[in-house]
Amino acid sequence: MTVRVFSAIRAAVAVLLLAGGAHYVLPAAGQAVAPAAGQGHPAVAGNWLDHQGKAAVEVRPCGGEMCGAIMWLKDPLDPKGKPWRDILNPDTRMRARQVCGLQIIGGLKPDKNGVWTGGWVYDPEEGKSFNVEISLKDANTLTVFGFAGVRLLSETMLWKRLPADQPRCKG
């Protein structure tokens, strides 16, 4: 079996996404998956499927900021059948961390226009962090804008909201 590692935000920013294997059911086309009522969380909070359908990230409040962690991978196992690890982290003490469950987004603070700015995204594929901003395009679409220092080196991705009961990494 060939394992391909896919970067969701190529060149400037990437979120580790692993191709292959498992499948799950997405909502039917046009079916809304709104956040649960009464949660009191910012509208960007929730479970989000990346634009390629290879990984899901749970975005949630972390104190006065927003953060996000990989909550699901389409193929969570390496070629040896073991969970993917953060093997390219420049800090050798962190290389044993499992990718599934890993915090990859942090430091996002709201601005007056509904954009969460000033954050970082960590790419386990490169062992590097980059700048990120997120905002809602609509109730079920998250705009993820990643860049490397300057906004010219950027890419915009659209992630789709998943149900709150989306299956998670097993751990």
Brief summary:
The chain is mostly beta strands.
Relevant terms:
mainly beta; Lipocalin; eight-stranded antiparallel barrel; 44% strand; globular
Write structural notes for this entry.
- The chain has 171 residues and is mostly beta strands.
- It has one domain (5-21, 47-162): Beta Barrel (Lipocalin).
- 0% of the residues lie in helices and 44% in strands.
- The chain has strands at 5-7, 16-18, 46-49, 55-62, 65-73, 103-110, 116-123, 128-138, 141-148, 150-162.
- Strands 3-4-5-6-7-8-9-10 form an 8-stranded antiparallel barrel.
- A hairpin with a 1-residue loop joins strand 9 (141-148) and strand 10.
- 32% of the residues are buried.
- Mean pLDDT is 79; it is low at 1-39.
Order of strands across the widest beta sheet? 3-4-5-6-7-8-9-10
Q: What is the element string, with H for helices and E for strands?
A: EEEEEEEEEE
Poorly predicted residue ranges: 1-39
Q: How much is the average pLDDT?
A: 79
**What is the CATH fold-level name?**
Lipocalin
Task: Specify the overall morphology.
Answer: globular
CATH 2nd-level architecture:
Beta Barrel
Portion of residues in beta strands equals 35-45%
How many helices? The count is 0
